[in-house]
Amino acid sequence: MGFMASPPDAHNSAHGAVYGQLLQVHDIHGDITVNPPQAPTTVADVSLDPPRPATTVRGRDGLLETLRNAMVRGAPVPHVLTGPGGFGKTTVAAALAEHARAEGWTVFWVRPDAILPSMLEIAVEMGAPRTEADQVKGAPRSAARWVWRHLDAAPRPWLLVLDNADRPELLDPENRPGEQRGWMRSSPGGFVLVTSRVNDPALWAPAKVHRVEVLTHEDASLALSDHAGAEDVPGAEALAERLGGVPIALALAGRILATHGLLFPDARSLLERLKDGVTGLDRLASPLVAGTNSERELLSEVWSLSLRLIGERFPKAERLLKFLALLGPEGMRVSVRRLPISALRGGVLDDPASPLDEATLARSINALIVQGLVRSDHGRGEPEVHLHPLVAETVLEGLTPSDAPLLDEVTSLLRRQHGRDPFQEATAHLSVLQHRVRTRSSPPTEDTRVQEAVEIVHLLNLAGEHEEAESMGRRFVRKMEQSLGPTHADTLKTRHGIAEAWLQQGELANAEAAYRELLETNLAVHGAEHDATLDVRFMLALIPLRRGEWEATIAGFRPLIESRTRRYGPENDRVLLARENVAFALMHLGEARRAEGEFLAVREIRLRTLDVGHPLVAMSDYYLGRVMSMAGDGDRAREHLRRCVDVRVRTLGDGHPDTVDAREWLARVNEGSN
């Protein structure tokens, strides 16, 4: 290998093929006997050269400074870079290798799938006899001791990078790599750096583990421009954000921009193409990585490799990852309580040959966490997992018609747990529906198309995508009016969804006009007491509430409370919501005690039918806290608001607007008591 200087103590070195004994003149005593020549040894065809970073390394200054400071000869422990595939571990290691070379260190770059011949070649470059290397190559443990003796005694400092150690057992088949009895060891001769997808500090201990994360928005934008070969790429910030700061995605996008300038003159044009899915990057970039290791250079392949590694020991992990991607699309957190074993038994995650139980599920989740495909935390007071948005999107785009049972099971699970987090549930339902439409193997019936259209508009509104709900609803309703007629139930439901989208966007005049027209049609088609008619009346009553017209709000909801109570009883959800809206109006009219009585009555009913940690009970606590604060009852107000905050942190998260609002009201109450 050409880049390493001969060790200073390798005196009288000879070059070329020499057979028999090599004698020095001062060693000759008496007659000279030359042994017969031996067969030449075979030189392993391995590369020990480090890769060179293709562009400036962005966003890793702090990590590289830490590694440079740690890179001393005789460092007490190896260092390990962990993180998902495609997050830039190898790039960081290559940047450190550049620094080491500049400092006069010898650099060895080793892939664990060729670790034995590579490490033997390192020892030979250190001056060890190749004949000895040939003698120990059949005994890996002896070979490791032999190689490390030469590394320990090296006269010149070295950096050894064990790159892509994604199968840690290749570093030591018998022991934990951190025990340093295999190929990963600390040494008085140099510094050892390992890169691996396996983020398991206990496996590597006492090695120092550094987790490599995605890039910040600013660094991601710069990295994208670097790969595109331009200082300023219009739209780079938006595209970098769309790609989630994932280095491999940024590199692919940059190469596409650099190569396909006619198709994509700027980042905005490529961003527009990715509306059809982020795996479009792979389709555009695959010719650019032809002949290379595509499983580490294409977006879909890089995470498929992780799944293959996991699947060897945890066969349920791949299906579980799809399950989690559907339950938590766009990186949304999924509470582990949404995965009850009782509901999952007999489903796609179960297997008669390997029955699903809590231990198996926990091990499969942990395997995904260790590979970096899933993150875990307790941010809302309970165990949660979530995927990086780009990982989730890539996984979901890989769904096929054979995944139909998986889609069915996720839908069933969401329905069984309805109401815990309406926003997340709606987003998950929408994701399932969209992928069901995309992956089905046969054309749907007209009735199926209509039902899906109605559901999509409804789910978009629930998920807060009101502009999209309006746009799609208006497109759907034109077709429905032509094929089904203007008074068909599904046509009216879609018109209802459009009006709701206007209401939620604050377009109250449009919403009111649409609802009044719907009311006339529903009265004519269904009558005054039909659910569809009452639902329209409910939404019409919300409009004066949004305008702050409190008397009109009360006048709109009172008859609805009476009608719904007669038909469904006092515990009906719509009855309770209507009573809550009346109480809200009373509160704003200064009738705090009357409002408090209504809020308390609603809360008592919800406690009978729901549990204390339900979001609707928390909503009652929120309103009670506000009205009691207005009445000067700070202690009781504080108690209710604290309950509300606790539930919302757990179910919605710290940063959710509803959580922030409740916390602000609690702060006001606390300030008022000081």
Describe the structure.
The chain has helices at 61-70, 89-102, 115-125, 130-136, 140-152, 201-204, 217-228, 236-242, 247-259, 267-273, 280-285, 299-311, 317-327, 341-344, 358-370, 389-397, 404-416, 422-439, 446-462, 466-483, 489-504, 508-525, 531-547, 550-568, 573-588, 592-609, 615-630, 634-651, 657-672, and strands spanning 79-82, 106-110, 158-162, 190-196, 208-211, 334-335, 375-377, 384-386. The chain has 674 residues and is mainly alpha-helical. The protein folds into five domains: 61-211, 3-Layer(aba) Sandwich (Rossmann fold); 217-293; 300-433, Arc Repressor Mutant, subunit A (Orthogonal Bundle); 507-575; 590-674, Serine Threonine Protein Phosphatase 5, Tetratricopeptide repeat, CATH 1.25.40. The strands form two sheets. A five-stranded parallel β-sheet has the order 2-3-4-1-5, sandwiched between helices. Strand 7 and strand 8 (384-386) form a beta hairpin. Helix 21 packs antiparallel against helix 22 (508-525).
